[in-house]
Design goal:
heterodimer, A: about 70 residues, mainly beta, Ubiquitin-like (UB roll), five-stranded mixed beta sheet, about 35% strand, disordered N terminus, B: about 260 residues, alpha/beta, 10 helices, about 15% strand, globular
Amino acid sequence: MNDAGMGMITVNGEARPLDGPMTVAGLLAAIGLDGRKVAVERNEAIVPRSAYEATRLEPGDSLEIVHFIGGG
Amino acid sequence: MDQVVSADMDDTWTVAGRSFRSRLVVGTGRYKDLEETAAAIEASGAEMVTVAVRRVNLSDPKAPMLQDFVDPKKYTYLPNTAGCHTANEAVRTLRLAREAGGWNLVKLEVLGPPPHLYPDMPGTFEAAEALIKDGFEVMVYCADDPLAAHRLEQMGCVAIMPLGAPIGSGLGIQNPAMLSLIIEQAKVPVLVDAGVGTASDAAIGMELGCDAVLLNSAIAHAREPVLMARAMKAAVEAGRFAYRAGRMPRRMGADPSSPLGGLIR
């Protein structure tokens, strides 16, 4: 356990409380997203899908969660 | 007849080791809804579609997603960098796309400001270099400049995609001579990307010798997108046949089609 019990993270530009230990997989589940259809960047580095379970969020983290949309 | 049919089946084009029969690449943007997107793409016969990468809407995580309507197992997704104005943004966006999709083939576009959204070539060179270094296979949207096109090819871009007219303008192919120069020198596929407004424009692109045509608005903004998608499919096929057949020479005078001998007197 570390002291990640309190603090804020930023997800897609929105501030969000980090209420306790949480992984990327836990965050996606909390938001209600299917991890197979999105990609995640944490502090400007890709989080591989295989690492969602193992990647713990830290206070101050900035995350981008993206998906494919229509485009030309 | 059999020989003609088999020649048609063999008439594929290849980019970065992937072969395609359809020479029409379509965008998935600007449709009324995802149902219309899916129907138009199906009607176009396209095998490769361009897609954008954007933040998910956190307040509506269950909103339908593009891949629920346009199956990435059936269509090759070509993620783009639309909206990126720096090399760093382009690289970050496409790294995310690579993780979301699991492939390296991408469409690079670095655009200048409105109202022209003309390709920003210094920015394009910088982003292409960074992407190629990072292992991407880059199909690149570019100006109709033969020197720029050659430089992009030398850098390792896998397809050169000059504009025929500004993005979304529907003005048709304004630069057939410049496109011909680029096609003539290129050893990688050349696609005309942007400018097509209607079916005849797509046919002209193919008659010039492009390997494929990339368009979006011409279908999405037609009054009946699904019908226009069919028109584009037919036009690209017709243009390709005409290119392969080789057009007749132009001449200034008339040349009668019926024999002059044997006329009644």
